[in-house]
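User: Hi! I'm working on a homework problem where we have to compare a predicted structure to a textbook description. Could you give me the structure for the chain below?
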Amino acid sequence: MKVMVVDDEVEIIELVENMLSPEGIKVIEATSGKECLQKLREERPDFIFLDIMMPGMDGWETLKKIKENPKFRDIPVAMFTVKPLTSKTLKRKEIDDIVDYVTKPFSKEDLLEVLRQVADI
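Assistant: Happy to help. Predicted structure tokens:
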């Protein structure tokens, strides 16, 4: 399984890689929404973890661009967030386009639980 992790904090990407690599999961790194969209053209992941709060193109805008592209729209996405998403936030955003969200800080089990929603791992 290949998972793309999009976060402007390199430490978060490295943490996810350290948690998932022992499970045989390859991590594709992207530190911005723009880099995510570029890397999607080069290598297609089976899943995307996408940080909401990033400079420039935030996670919601990146999600919108992913889902607008017929080549990528079927890739499952979960959002990383510092605080739990409220029903008010979810109503305003493209909540139907995400599988789930993961609140920082997270554990390895949190990540695997989300991935199990779409894959046998």
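For your comparison, note the following. The two ends are 9 Å apart (CA to CA). The chain has a mean pLDDT of 92. Good luck with the assignment!
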